[in-house]
Design a protein that fits this description.
Blueprint: H1 2-10, H2 13-44, H3 49-52, H4 66-75, H5 93-125, H6 130-153, H7 161-167, H8 172-179, H9 182-195, H10 199-213, H11 215-220
């Protein structure tokens, strides 16, 4: 949304508005799917905690976190309210927790691919007009934000999903010792986010992933 203001200032109201709308779309429609993916995979692996607590839904009201949503709107990176998972109900807790964790970022990558596919299709098929240009910007930004969220969540530090994937590769004692510092690591992560220290790395990795998911649609619409 911060980037949108620069477009408003330059007189490009269409691009600025599409930036705001795409961010709202991700907050209201994509982050709930991310959390639903966690809950659904956990349910399939034997843990019904999310279902019992009413989190096995794509209703945004069940998942939105105020601070995390504001961060997505302002910076393109944020979070929703984590879906509860009970490791004790899983047959293979260490492995299953990693599978559950990866489900969220994977859903963002799938959504990113779909929206990027639509954007590229628009750029190749639709005749140039202010309407087609606006839709192109909307879907391109929706794809970028989803990919950025996937990259961000795969960072292997708590409480992000990547830390649970890391847990499957670490000895249990080492992981629990690491998790003792979760609160301090989270504070450090928030500082890095608000100061923009992670922006360069996240945007670089997002750019690589965007190029990768553009291969198939570019071949189709060549």
């Amino acid at each position: 949304m911060i980037r949108a203001f620069s477009y408003f200032a330059s007189g490009d109201f269409v691009t600025g508005m599409m930036m705001i709308l795409s961010s709202l779309f991700v907050v209201l429609c994509c982050t709930p799917i991310h959390e639903f993916a966690h809950g659904y995979v956990a349910y399939k692996l034997g843990d019904d905690t999310a279902k019992v607590q009413g989190r096995l839904t794509i209703n945004p009201l069940a998942h939105l976190d105020l601070i995390g949503s504001i961060m997505i709107l302002l910076f393109g990176i944020g979070y929703a309210k984590p879906v509860p998972v009970s490791a004790r109900r899983l047959k293979n807790p260490k492995r299953d927790m990693a599978i559950i964790a990866i489900a969220g970022p994977l859903s963002n990558l799938i959504m990113g691919f779909i929206y990027n596919f639509i954007a590229i299709a628009i750029s190749h098929i639709a005749n140039y007009s202010s309407m087609s240009s606006a839709f192109y910007v909307f879907f391109t930004l929706a794809a970028e934000i989803n990919v950025m969220l996937a990259v961000f969540n795969l960072i292997p530090i708590p409480p992000l999903d990547g830390s649970k994937v890391l847990a499957s590769a670490l000895p249990t004692k080492t992981y629990f010792k690491y998790m003792q510092y979760e609160r301090y690591i989270m504070i450090g992560l928030m500082i890095l986010l608000f100061t923009g220290a992670l922006n360069g790395v996240i945007r670089f990795l997002t750019g690589i992933m965007m190029s990768f998911i553009s291969i198939i649609p570019n071949l189709i619409f060549k």
